[in-house]
Amino acid sequence: MKDLLEFNYQTDEDLIGYELLFNNLLKSTKEILKIDQILSLSVNYIDPLNSKELNNNYRGKDYVGDVISFPIDDDFGIYEQLGFKEIGDIFITFDEAQRKAQKYNHSIKEEMAWLFTHGLLHILGYDHETSEEDEKEMFELTNKILEKQNLEYIMPY
């Protein structure tokens, strides 16, 4: 059995071309982090209105998020009994990705790759908002993963 990425389109944008890229980024992430378990997650493309609503309802933030992640906690050990581990959901707002790509002079492919990788690391348990050390670790991992796919992303801040 291979990893399962489920893609949900809640936008009119044609984003099917990112499916292969995200699968490759997942593979690179697993190699770098030495994850042997089969993973299952969803990638949801949403419009700005839904993004702002999710961000407000679940994070208490009143703006359109570029990527919002919801990890699944397995407090009961259910996934230890199965042949895979469900890790969570990633929500990407393509309109916001386009805006940021233009603002920071990245290609849309680089921006989408960064957003997916960032969201993936969050649902794998990484967090850049807890300390400077955690932030450094998460962004260094992001760069390693992108480099493995011959992508470069220069942080704008």
UniProtKB/TrEMBL annotation:
This is Endoribonuclease YbeY. Its main location: cytoplasm. One of its GO terms (biological process) is rRNA processing. One of its GO terms (cellular component) is cytoplasm. GO terms for molecular function: metalloendopeptidase activity; RNA endonuclease activity; zinc ion binding. HAMAP family: Endoribonucl_YbeY (MF_00009). Zn(2+) binds at residues 118, 122, 128. Binds 1 zinc ion. PANTHER family: ENDORIBONUCLEASE YBEY, CHLOROPLASTIC (PTHR46986:SF1).
